[in-house]
Task: structure prediction
Amino acid sequence: MPRDLPLANGHMLVNFDAQYNLRDIYWPHVGERNQTQGHVNHTGVWVDGSFAWFDSDVWQRELRYDEDTLVSSVTLTSDALQLTIACHDTVDFDRDLFIRRLEVTNRADRPREVRLFFHHDWHLGESEGANTVLYTPELQALLAYKDRWYLLVGGLVGDSAATAGGPRESRQADEGVHAWATGYKDINGQQGTWRDAEDGELGRNPIAQGSVDSCAQFSLGSLAPLSSRVCYQWLAAGANYAAVRKLSELVRERGPESFIRRTHDYWHLWVNTKPLTMADLPESLVDLYKRSLLIMRTQIDDDGAIIAATDGDVWTFARDSYAYMWPRDGALVATALSHSGYGEITGAFFDFCANVITPDGYLLHKFTPAGALGSSWHPWIDTNGQPMLPIQEDETALVVYALWQHYKLFREVEFIRPLYLPLVKRAADFMARFREPHTGLPAPSWDLWEERHGIHAYTVAAVYAGLAAAANFARLFGETERADVYDKAATEIQAAARTHMWSEQAGRFVRMINVGADGAIMPDMTLDSSLTGLYQFGMFSADCDEIRKTMDAIQERLVVKTSVGGVARYENDYYHQVSHDIQNVAGNPWFICVCWLAEYFISRAQTEDELHQALAPLQWVGDHALPSGVLAEQVDPYTDAPLSVSPLTWSHAEYVAAVRWYVGKHRRLEEHTPTSAPFGHV
Result:
């Protein structure tokens, strides 16, 4: 089930799903470790003998955020139960503290007793074994722990006086968990303590160890007709008991509402602190731009890893996840953030890359948030048993390209200086020598889709941009001879791309070639939306005839011809494939591919009317986002349902980038200085 409403602070991240189940609790890194491993953590309500979990069909749900914040705004309404529950959830912007505020309103014409239940399916350290969960009377809370992972479930119930803040002694609040259950799941047919809650009573077992879960009950008492009461429930994370006890006591002392309010104010300031001149974009697209910035921030660990996605359902189905730092995704996210003014965030990403790049100058497939090498399916030998590099060279190239974009915007020489030797020069030297001998193109590597090995057009364009960026850096540091080497390699690659990757017969560029031992060229004629990289990274102008013809083919054959619309990755895309009607549905529509089409219209525009061609694909993105503003990787071409992971950080980054392209081009057209170069490239 797609994730919705990610909330994070750079150390701790939680995700809900579309039915408002809490699913993922990552700590101490964003993307590592998932302390519930994507399993459902139920929340439910008992009212006068009737019980319903929040994912029950009795509820109508509206899942959104408070405007310009990372505080959720969720409304649950049930005519059958005659209840309305207004929910606000957040991860404190500074402390590793997840706080939920649930205001329950009795819509019946008689007083009724109400109880709330919060279940957690513990997989501490991403394993269901050797967990312990217990009730601690000292804190009137539940505590789950294993090794260095401690998570404390606390809370309180109160009326309006309890929510107003102020001194603890002046608040009318009933502190602590009222009843609890600890027990076993996933062994001997046991489903877990959430089943214990469905009669409105919990067994109060004090401790359980092994494969365990827990459930906390808070009693709101008898609610008069049309009256409300508030329950706060929090989750404190720490490396030991003392740490979580201190956090929980701090929440009790200051009041949980104060943490929600300060986090609301922080993120509202964060997303509005950079100047926003949004040209003539509709307000809804501006709102999605700001929401995308916030969602991108949730997927970034404070130690520098920009995570592709934290949707734990992928783990359930594939036994692995997207919760890694892919250098390509990270570089494109960093570029979008830099151009949006958030260079202080992207700086840590470049430090991360400098720390993990190999001595030979290339970045491997992907990395964990802590900087370890991630799992991979790229082999280290070819089909003949000969050694080959298990890389996607665009990942190395785009990091250097993104760093140059960062420098051009912020001119931080002191920041660049320690990165120049280990990251820029090392990577550029590798790119300059890692060449296919017959063509002069970059040597074969894995494509950006991680599916095929060869010389991919997108990679060629990225390497061109990376070498051009490295040449600019070399000149800044007075190494003109080295800059000439990088420039020469980039120019040769550009010429070779036109010679070997253009097909006169097809009248467009090809997505990939392989070169035989005798120099024979074997083209892959599959039409691929990533051919947009040939102009995106400045290797060819969007106005040139070859790019125009290539983009015409993409619009003719990759635009999805259903009521959903959108743009497919490539012809007969098999990943999560829904339809084999390739003539009408070349593949599922991807948000990034739609944004690439918008960027093409923006790049070519010489008048405002031409620029407005980009509004349709941008509006498509807005129309197919979840109500919260979350963008998945792709959507079903018939039902519009999110497919694969949700949110995908790259989807939000491409939307932000497209908006920046649009705004920049609009400004230049007003100034009568049109140019096709996106972002003012190298």
User: Anything to note?
Assistant: The mean pLDDT is 95.
